[in-house]
UniProtKB/TrEMBL annotation:
GO molecular function, one term: transferase activity
One Pfam family cited in the UniProt record for this chain: PS_pyruv_trans
Protein name, entry field: Polysaccharide pyruvyl transferase family protein
Domain annotation Polysaccharide pyruvyl transferase: ranges: 36-296
Keyword Transferase attached: yes
InterPro entries with a match to the protein in the record: Polysacch_pyruvyl_Trfase
Keywords: Transferase
Domain of life: Bacteria
Length: 332
């Protein structure tokens, strides 16, 4: 019997292989240079898919170190541009969207593929700007990670090649973790996507810890060290190409640092309760029982409905009361 992760990876590789011939040279842009470990889970999944497809990854960059000239230098005239996936295709996270539009606008000479995203646009000038920039590109593929979002993106971005493709975080291998020292770890959003920021979700009778992504003091020190080459490259642009091999290794070190921290945090609980999509994904990959609450734009429930819900250890809780009932049943 095919396991859920195997089917998701098989489907994703089939979709990507239609767009990316084996041996192609690619760039992967918009490295998540922040401490949201969910984005690094996606990044590591993207890197694994690139390896599995037999692609040559020749250039990576974050928003502050990207250069069109460097991109052309490293990937040559036929290279394909990949934009890191996630949940920032829209008007909620405007800085990320603006960078994606810059990439699209500067690379009409290349096939550009926006890797699996959720979409969240309100009608208005921000959407119209994105439609104008994207619609002007002659060879832009937009991958959308849930079916509701796919229908929305197909309607709003009909001039582009819009396809469904599962979230890239599922490119990672299963990681079986130990049972933690408390019953429940509640990994809780506190940003604009939260609908439970001021709500007491877990019943007092259930032993639990409330946390969010973050690093230990040692991790914070390593974070600073790994950013030194990038700081030099940013202040002295003429050093970027010479420093690129070191910078690329530092990106990977940053991603793995954040993921080690994320696994440590989720490992503290026997059950993972979360309204963060990629905490639910990581918990599922770790083999832990996961109880997932929705976030403000419904991306958690959408992904659970489409494929994350096929994992037997993942359950969706529409309300706090449902979450407590499910957790109580799991703890009996």
């Amino acid at each position: 019997m095919q396991m859920p992760i195997d089917k998701i990876q098989t489907d994703t590789l089939r979709i990507l292989a239609e767009l990316l011939p084996a041996g192609s040279t690619v760039a992967l842009l918009d490295f998540p240079n922040h401490k949201n470990a969910g984005d690094h889970l996606i990044w590591e999944g993207e890197i694994q898919y690139i390896r599995d497809l037999g692609l040559k990854l020749a250039y990576v960059a974050d928003a502050t170190r990207y250069s069109k000239a460097d991109l052309d230098h490293f990937i040559g005239p036929d290279g394909i541009v990949l934009i890191h996936g996630g949940g920032n295709f829209g008007d909620r996270w405007d800085e990320a969207q603006a960078f994606h539009e810059r990439i699209v606008d500067e690379n009409h000479d290349r096939h550009v593929i926006q890797l699996s995203q959720g979409i969240e646009f309100q009608d208005g000038p921000r959407l119209e700007r994105a439609q104008s920039v994207y619609g002007a590109h002659p060879n832009l593929t937009i991958l959308i990670r849930d079916h509701v979002g796919f229908d929305d993106a197909s309607r709003r971005f009909g001039k582009n090649d819009v396809r469904f493709c599962p979230d890239m975080a599922f490119g990672n291998k299963p990681i079986h973790g130990e049972r933690g020292f408390t019953d429940v770890i509640y990994l809780k959003r506190t940003d604009s996507e939260s609908v439970n920021a001021s709500v007491v979700v877990v019943a007092p009778s259930i032993g639990h810890l409330v946390d969010d992504w973050g690093l230990t003091p040692v991790g914070e020190l390593l974070w600073i060290i790994y950013h030194v080459p990038g700081a030099v490259a940013r202040r002295l642009p003429f050093t970027r190409r010479a420093l690129f091999p070191i910078q690329a290794r530092c990106y990977q070190a940053i991603a793995r640092l954040n993921l080690r921290s994320a696994k440590r945090i989720l490992g503290r609980g026997g059950i993972v309760l979360t309204d963060r999509l990629h905490a639910a994904v990581l918990g599922a990959l770790m083999g832990k029982p996961v109880v997932a609450l929705d976030n403000a734009n419904g991306k958690v429930s959408a992904i659970i409905r489409d494929y994350l819900g096929t994992f037997p250890n993942v359950q969706y809780a529409p309300t706090a009361a449902d979450a407590n009932r499910i957790m109580s049943e799991l703890l009996d």
